[in-house]
Amino acid sequence: MSWTGGSFGERATCVLAPNANIMTLDGTNTWVLREPGARRSVVIDPGPPDAAHLAAVEAVSDQMGAGQVGVVLLTHHHIDHSESAKEFASRLGCGVRALDPAYRLGEEGLGDGDVVEIDGLEIRVVGTPGHSSDSLSFHVPADNAILTGDTVLGRGTTVVAHPDGELGAYLDSLDRLHALADTHAVERIWPGHGPVIDNALGALDYYIAHRHERLDQVRAALEQLANEPHPEGVSVDELPRRVVEIVYTDVDPVLWGAAELSVRAQLAYLRGAD
Q: Where are the domains of the chain?
């Protein structure tokens, strides 16, 4: 499935960054939101410091020239989302708001329950930790849409980036997003990578079921490893990779390094549940 970005709803345009790889899918989705007829826009996750990409974001943000971006918001601190944020915002004369103070430009932070209003555009901040400790999602009620960063991707599933990411928090975040979708407050997902999702509830049903299925598979793998004859047993350091080799046979081995991060998060979660 090819994904190139575009315009969605009445308020959103996705500008796809040229940083495609096995972890970013087609590249980072930089989102530009603007209330119809408004002067200023909001830019979410400017992405890498690529001059052509940032020029395209600026052109979408303001067809009349620089200075019309009201604020830059970050879904989380990972470099493919945040690297250009401070430089881009500084050049356009606005701030960067993020949960992690290290990634802000200006005094204003960002956290669960905050409401960002720019020229009539309302964005409600939903705390969704798990992929990273500082992950946020941005609900746009007027379009019944939510921007999820890496918490929910447009294709495939995300990595719980242990140790900063934490599986228990991630499962709670999926439940929180599911509750918004279940009440029809959210009908579509505008992700940080990959295509938009028009059936938010269906996607979240899948994400939740997939995570619990993986946990069951990890439990079975641990039992298998415990029963295998091994003269010295499996060391603590070796265990995550051995679990990956059993559980993630359906995943390209080039992604096993990322899968191991998720397995480490799964093992920590299971240890806490015991």
A: 5-200, 211-273
Model confidence pLDDT, tens digit, residues 191-217: 999 999 999 999 999 999 999 999 999
Ramachandran assignment for 93, one of left (phi > 0), alpha (psi -120 to 50 degrees), beta (any other): left
Give the three-class secondary structure for 270.
Answer: helix
Angstrom distance (rounded) from CA 212 to CA 215: 5
Superfamily of domain 5-200: Ribonuclease Z/Hydroxyacylglutathione hydrolase-like (3.60.15.10)
| Whether the predicted model's global pTM rises above the 0.85 cut | yes
Query: Residue 234's pLDDT band (boundaries 50, 70, 90)?
Result: low
Q: What is the side-by-side order of every strand in the sheet holding 41-44? A: 5-8, 12-16, 29-33, 41-44, 69-73, 95-97
